[in-house]
Amino acid sequence: MAPSTAAHPEKPLPAAPDAMVRQGCPATKVGVFLLAAAIFGGPKGWSFAEVSDERIPLADLKVGEEMDARIKKPWRMFGWFVDIGATKDAFMEFEEGCDGFPVDGINTWRKGASLTVRILDLDVDRIYLTTRTGPLERPPRFRRAPTAEDVESYGNMDANEIIDTSVCGMSPGGIWLRVPSRNAGEDFRTLLRLEDCEESVKESARLGMTVPVSVTGIDREKKRVLVTMMTAKR
Q1: Where does the record place the S1 motif domain (predicted)?
Q2: 164-194 per-position pLDDT tens digit
Q3: Contacts 24+ apart (CB under 8 A), 73-76
């Protein structure tokens, strides 16, 4: 074990430790406070990291690592900024807020809430988190919006025809689905609203999950393909 660098014999103390405490030396007061807290425990919700502000370098973090965390703030409908004690705040996307669909929306986690997370992904300067159980593998992020041609290609879709889509994201309003192209173009995403989603899917929803839907119509103005699970029965 490397020797402690807390004391420097080559630099004599200006007074005996007990005298420094009596004289009110600020550095000594902090040291005594930290030592007492380490031995007897600090106030509720207090941690050594909060007082010492010792932050974890990003290079020391590992995918899959479990950490105690605290919600700093929600960010619109996309997720939450989270403090894990690192030199940079982490981010937890909405769909990673719980197993299944976060039915309480952005209020699933409120500012200041404590939680246990796992590191899902590490980018050059980003930390992504999850509270989900199970494997950490995820499909590539997919957010392509449909073009007018994509939407029009579904305009004459038979309401009894079932198409297989896959979950590519979630938001408070519903589950984002990756929809196959019908005009030799690229896949695109559309929103399956909660009222059109079966309860069993809400309970088990996860990225990459296959969801059978039927098309109920299109919205040319908003460039949307409208889908439901309620009539998608095989």
Answers
A1: 64-132, 160-230
A2: 999 999 999 999 999 999 987 899 999 999 9
A3: 73/111, 74/106, 74/109, 74/110, 74/111
